[in-house]
C-alpha cells in the first residue's frame, strides 16, 4: 500500500516538474529573452530604490509562486549578464533622430543641453511622490472606481499597458501622451525585442514610430495567459515583487489638451473615422460628413475642443466602449493602488527624472533617453484652452479625472473651477 502511494506521489511530482519545464522552454522559444535573474534584475536590496523597502507591503507569495521563482531562476542562471560587446554596440548610434513622422515633424526636437538637470533632489522627490500615492490609496475617505479591488480582480485585458523587460528586470506602465513613444523605444532597445536587418536596435530614435506602437513588439502582462495559463497570475506577482516598476504621468488636463492636439488637430484617419465623425454629428449637428480626414480638413470640418469635452462628459461614451487609451485615466491604465510602483516620473520634470531613472536601473551606460519636444503642451495653456468651456463642464471634467490629480500630487486647478 505504501509503495503504491509513493508511486502515485512520484508520478504527480514528475508531471508537475515536466509542466514547469515546458513553460520555461515555451517562453525561451517564444521570446528568446526571458531572464528572470540577470545581473540587472536581481531582487532589490533595501534602499536600492528611494522610498522602497524590499518586500514592503507585500504578502507572502504562495508556495507555488516560490517554487516557480526558484525553478525559473535556477534554470536560467547561464543568462546572467549582457555581453560586453552588446553594451559597446548600444553605446553607439546616431546622435540625431531620423524624423519621418508628420506628428514629430510638427513638434520638433529639443537637443539643447540642460546643465541644471541635477538640481532637483531626486531621492526626496521620489519619496514624496510615493508617499502621496500610498497615503491616498490607503485613505478610505477618498474613493474612485476600481480603487478597492485587488490585483487578482483586474481583468486580463486591463493589463495591456504593463510592458515587461525580463533581460533587465523592468516593468513599465505606459501612459499615452506622457512621453510613452520614447519610453517604449527605450524598452525595445533594452529587451532587444525588435531587430533591424537581424541586429537589435541600439539607438531608441532609430526605431520607426509604427513599430513602436505595434502591440506585437512588446511583452505585456495581458499576453501571459496565452503562455502560462493558470500560472500567469503567479508569474506576474513574482515579477511585480522582484522587478523595478515605473510609470510617467502629467497634469491630467494638460494631457487632455495634448491628446486633442495630436489626434484631432493633425490629420489622423483612424481617429477621424472612430471619434471625429460621431463627435461632429452629435455635438456640432453635421450630417453627410466626408469619409476621409483630408476631405474633412479641406472643407474646414474639424472637431472643436468643446466637442471633445462634451464627448468625455457624455454618459453614452463609456456605455459604448471604455475611454480610448489617449484620454483614459491613469488609474485605469496602470492600477497604482494595486501595483506598488518603485518610480513615479512626471513629464513636467522629464529630463531630470529620465536621467535619474536610467541610473537607478543601471542602464545609463547603454543608452540615453531621447530629447524632449520643443513645443511640449504646457500647463500655462490651460486657461486659454478652457476659456470657452462652461464652468459646469470644467467641474464635471475635474471629477472625472480627480483621482489622477490627487494620487499623483497635482494641485486642483482652482482657477478653472470657479467663476
UniProtKB/TrEMBL annotation:
One Pfam family recorded for the sequence: Sulfotransfer_2
Location, primary (coarse class): Golgi
The keyword Transcription regulation is annotated on this UniProt entry: no
Entry keyword Transmembrane helix: yes
Enzyme Commission no: 2.8.2.-
Single GO BP term: carbohydrate biosynthetic process
Coiled-coil region: none
Transmembrane segments: 7-26
Gene Ontology molecular function, alphabetical: sulfotransferase activity
Highest taxon above the source species: Eukaryota
GO cellular component: Golgi membrane
Subcellular location: Golgi apparatus membrane
Bilayer disposition of the protein: Single-pass type II membrane protein
Keywords: Carbohydrate metabolism, Glycoprotein, Golgi apparatus, Membrane, Signal-anchor, Transferase, Transmembrane, Transmembrane helix
Family to which the UniProt record says this protein belongs: Belongs to the sulfotransferase 2 family.
Protein name: Carbohydrate sulfotransferase
Gene of this entry: Chst12
Amino acid at each position: 500500500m505504501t509503495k503504491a502511494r509513493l508511486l502515485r506521489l512520484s508520478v504527480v511530482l514528475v508531471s508537475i516538474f515536466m509542466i514547469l519545464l515546458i513553460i520555461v522552454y515555451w517562453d525561451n522559444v517564444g521570446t528568446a529573452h526571458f531572464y528572470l535573474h540577470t545581473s540587472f534584475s536581481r531582487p532589490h536590496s533595501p534602499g536600492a530604490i528611494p522610498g522602497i523597502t524590499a518586500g514592503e507591503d507585500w504578502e507572502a507569495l504562495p508556495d507555488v509562486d516560490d517554487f516557480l521563482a526558484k525553478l525559473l531562476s535556477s534554470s536560467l542562471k547561464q543568462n546572467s549578464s549582457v555581453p560586453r560587446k552588446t553594451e559597446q554596440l548600444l553605446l553607439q548610434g546616431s546622435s540625431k533622430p531620423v524624423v519621418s513622422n508628420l506628428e514629430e515633424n510638427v513638434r520638433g526636437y529639443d537637443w539643447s543641453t540642460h546643465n541644471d538637470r541635477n538640481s532637483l533632489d531626486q531621492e526626496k522627490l521620489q519619496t514624496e511622490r510615493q508617499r502621496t500615492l500610498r497615503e491616498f490609496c490607503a485613505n478610505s475617505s477618498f474613493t474612485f472606481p476600481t480603487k478597492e479591488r485587488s490585483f487578482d480582480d483586474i481583468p486580463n485585458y486591463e493589463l495591456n499597458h504593463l510592458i515587461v523587460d525580463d533581460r533587465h528586470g523592468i516593468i513599465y506602465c505606459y501612459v499615452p501622451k506622457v512621453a510613452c513613444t520614447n519610453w517604449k523605444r527605450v524598452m525595445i532597445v533594452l529587451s532587444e525585442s525588435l531587430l533591424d536587418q537581424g541586429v537589435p536596435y541600439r539607438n531608441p530614435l532609430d526605431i520607426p514610430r509604427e513599430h513602436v506602437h505595434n502591440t506585437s513588439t512588446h511583452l505585456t502582462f495581458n499576453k501571459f495567459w496565452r503562455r502560462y495559463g493558470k500560472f500567469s497570475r503567479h508569474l506576474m506577482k513574482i515579477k511585480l515583487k522582484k522587478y523595478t516598476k515605473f510609470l510617467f504621468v502629467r497634469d491630467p488636463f494638460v494631457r487632455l489638451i495634448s491628446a486633442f492636439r495630436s489626434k484631432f488637430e493633425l490629420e489622423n484617419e483612424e481617429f477621424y473615422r472612430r471619434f471625429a465623425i460621431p463627435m461632429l454629428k452629435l455635438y456640432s449637428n453635421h450630417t453627410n460628413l466626408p469619409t476621409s480626414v483630408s476631405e474633412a480638413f479641406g472643407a474646414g470640418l474639424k472637431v472643436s475642443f468643446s466637442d471633445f469635452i462634451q464627448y468625455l462628459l457624455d454618459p453614452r461614451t463609456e456605455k459604448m466602449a471604455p475611454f480610448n487609451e489617449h484620454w483614459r485615466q491613469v488609474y485605469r491604465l496602470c492600477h497604482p493602488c494595486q501595483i506598488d510602483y518603485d518610480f513615479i516620473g512626471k513629464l513636467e520634470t522629464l529630463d531630470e527624472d529620465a536621467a535619474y531613472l536610467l541610473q537607478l536601473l543601471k542602464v545609463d551606460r547603454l543608452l540615453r533617453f531621447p530629447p524632449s519636444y520643443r513645443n511640449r503642451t504646457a500647463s500655462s495653456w490651460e486657461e486659454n484652452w478652457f476659456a470657452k468651456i462652461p464652468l459646469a463642464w470644467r467641474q464635471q471634467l475635474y471629477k472625472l479625472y480627480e483621482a489622477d490629480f490627487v494620487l499623483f500630487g497635482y494641485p486642483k486647478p482652482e482657477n478653472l473651477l470657479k467663476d
